[in-house]
Amino acid sequence: MKKELKIRIADYKEVEKLLEQAGAKFIKQDTSTYTYFTQPAGKVLKITQNNEGSFKTVIERSGDQFNIIENSALDDPKELLEEYSKEHGIKKAMSNIRRFFEYKDLIITTNQFKDIGQFLILEGDNPKLSFITEVLGIKNAQVITKSFDDL
User: Fold this and answer.
1) CATH classification at residue 27
2) Burial annotation 68-87 (CB, 10 A radius, 16+ → b, else e)
């Protein structure tokens, strides 16, 4: 099961320089729109739409990380959006510019949200804060343990 560790950052461009200096490879950029549905605390149900398609994602918080329970492609999100809207209610819709990097066994993204700020997400089997503090040299990293729709 993949996990996420996310921190708030002040300047994604500076963090990207640190990633490249550490040997991370830039992969791509996308703009995603997320529709978050009302869920119990610590659980996330969202539909993501971007230039690569639509995806259903289910995430659960575990300590200071998030477990990715499901991340599956959708052929036609319209029906599921309608079903989840009726069943759960739409909590929030947000847009995000994501820039993807690869580093060893991690997928790393810088995330730019208009209303809530900038974030760095490490995704992998066991993402560690030590990558952020020791490899990137970011001290006093503010780990985010809430879903973006709760910020």
Assistant:
1) 2.40.320.10
2) beeeeebeebeeebeebeee
